[in-house]
Structure to design on (245 residues):
C-alpha cells in the first residue's frame, strides 16, 4: 500500500477513536430528466449510485467496488489489486509507444477542460435547514450555472464521514487508472463534488435548464452491512473495462 495511504489509515483510526459514535449522512439527489442518485457515508465508508448500480468505498481498507444488484455481480478490490490489474494494460501501452504508436490518436479529441471558478452573489437562503449562499459558476470567465453552496453541510459531512479523505481517494484512483491507460478516459463526478473547496452544493441550475438538487439530507446511523457487497454476489475480474463507475 502506498505510504500516503498508511498515513491516512492511521489518521482515520485516530478519528474513529475520538468520534466513535458519529452518525452517518444520507443525501438523495435529483437530476432533471435523469432520475435519482444517492450518497451515503459513515466513518470512512461510502456508498453512492442508483438502484441499478452503485459504488462502495472503504477508506480503512482502501477498497473500491462497483455493484450491480440486478445481475448480482461486483468488481473491485484494493488499490494494490487495481494496480496489478492495470499492469498488462500499462505494458501494452509501453509496447505501442515503443513502436511509435499513440493510442490517444484513435479517440475523438474533445475540448480542453475549462478553467472553473466561482463568484459569490449577495443571495442567501436556508435550504433543507442549512444556510446556503448563491455562487455563479464560471467556465473560462463565462457564467454557466448558479450554485447554492453550504459550508455547514460540508463541515458536517466531513466530520461524520471524512469526506475530504474520500475525495483524495477517488482522485488517486482516477489518476492511477488514467496513468495506466495512458489517456484521459476516467474522471471523477464533478457536478456533485467540485465545489468542495468553498462548500457543498445543494442545488445547481445550468444555463441550458438542467437542474441537480439535493432533495433529502439527514443524519442516519447505518449498519456495517449497508456498506458491504451483498453475500452471494459473483466477483468479476478487475479491469478498467468492467469498472463501470
Amino acid at each position: 500500500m502506498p505510504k500516503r495511504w498508511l498515513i491516512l489509515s492511521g489518521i482515520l483510526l485516530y478519528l474513529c477513536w475520538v468520534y466513535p459514535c458519529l452518525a452517518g449522512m444520507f443525501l438523495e439527489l435529483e437530476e432533471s430528466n435523469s432520475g435519482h442518485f444517492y450518497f451515503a457515508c459513515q466513518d470512512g465508508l461510502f456508498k453512492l449510485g442508483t438502484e441499478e448500480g452503485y459504488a462502495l468505498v472503504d477508506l480503512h481498507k482502501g477498497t473500491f467496488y462497483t455493484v450491480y444488484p440486478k445481475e448480482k455481480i461486483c468488481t473491485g478490490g484494493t488499490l494494490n489489486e487495481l494496480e496489478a490489474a492495470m499492469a498488462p494494460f500499462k505494458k501494452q501501452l509501453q509496447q505501442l509507444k515503443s513502436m511509435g504508436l499513440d493510442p490517444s490518436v484513435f479517440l475523438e479529441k474533445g475540448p480542453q477542460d475549462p478553467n472553473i471558478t466561482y463568484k459569490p452573489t449577495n443571495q442567501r437562503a436556508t435550504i433543507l435547514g442549512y444556510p446556503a449562499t448563491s455562487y455563479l459558476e464560471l467556465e473560462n470567465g463565462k457564467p454557466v450555472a448558479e450554485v447554492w453552496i453550504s459550508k455547514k453541510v460540508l463541515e458536517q459531512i466531513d466530520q461524520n464521514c471524512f469526506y475530504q479523505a474520500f475525495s483524495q481517494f477517488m482522485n488517486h484512483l482516477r489518476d492511477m487508472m488514467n496513468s495506466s491507460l495512458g489517456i484521459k478516459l476516467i474522471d471523477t463526478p464533478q457536478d456533485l463534488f467540485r465545489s468542495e473547496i468553498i462548500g457543498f452544493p445543494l442545488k445547481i441550475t445550468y444555463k441550458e435548464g438542467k437542474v441537480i438538487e439535493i432533495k433529502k439530507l439527514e443524519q442516519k446511523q447505518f449498519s456495517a452491512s449497508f456498506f458491504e457487497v451483498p453475500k452471494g454476489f459473483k466477483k468479476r475480474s478487475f479491469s478498467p473495462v468492467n469498472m463501470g463507475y
User: Anything to note?
Assistant: Confidence is low (pLDDT under 50) at residues 1-21, 185-193. The longest strand covers residues 116-127. The domain at 3-236 is CATH 2.50.20 (outer membrane lipoprotein receptor (LolB), chain A).
